[in-house]
């Protein structure tokens, strides 16, 4: 799988990113009693469509009859997550609905996330190649409490997008509200650190 992923991603630094995401997802899955192989597969395949240009993302989604909402049409980059799940199925034969679900939700989180969804979202946002204040503390938190780490990473992501004037998906606000409603033990959370990254993950 590694060689095929490397060839299909088309960018060495993106390949290094997916390797780090797969490794962190594996460790988080082991810690939280999830399937480590599902976590590794989701990590390896989550960004298959990340480098597709906007026109290709829209065209490939439309060709498959996938519904594209208003936000996605205005910000096609987020479609790389949902299209990536289709490519994982078509090109790598992934049939596990839990793996496909995690890939679909790795960029725009949902109000209801499975543990594997959370693990991939966190591994993508917290892998050590990213550098922003609070990253290491949030990574450590993810090993103790997935929900608290989700709240911290979503907050941080929203703060970063807003600081850069990048629109935030309505579903991201819905997810943020859902995690805030269930917030427990929030004293562990660092205060909304500003992230610094070039584009949606
Ligand atoms: Fe991504
Ligand atoms: Fe990623």
Topology at a glance:
Layout: H1 2-9, H2 12-32, H3 36-45, H4 54-63, H5 70-74, H6 79-92, H7 97-104, H8 115-126, H9 135-144, H10 146-163, H11 170-181
Helix pairs in contact: 2-3, 2-8, 3-7, 3-8, 4-6, 6-7, 7-8, 8-9, 8-10, 9-10, 10-11
Bound molecules: fe (ii) ion (2 copies).
Protein traits:
Hypothetical protein af1432; mainly alpha; 201 residues; binds fe (ii) ion
Outline the biggest β-sheet: none
CATH domain class name: Mainly Alpha
| Rg measurement, Å | 16 Å
Low-confidence stretches: none
Terminal CA distance reads: 21 Å
Named CATH topology: Hypothetical protein af1432
The hetero compounds bound to this protein are: fe (ii) ion
Tally of DSSP helical segments: 11
Helix content: 55-70%
Tally of individual domains = 1
* Shape call: globular
What would CATH call the architecture? Orthogonal Bundle
Find the structural class using helix and strand composition. mainly alpha
Beta strand count: 0
Mean pLDDT: 92
SSE sequence, one letter per element:
HHHHHHHHHHH
The amount of beta strand, in percent, is: under 5%
- The CATH homologous superfamily is called Hypothetical protein af1432
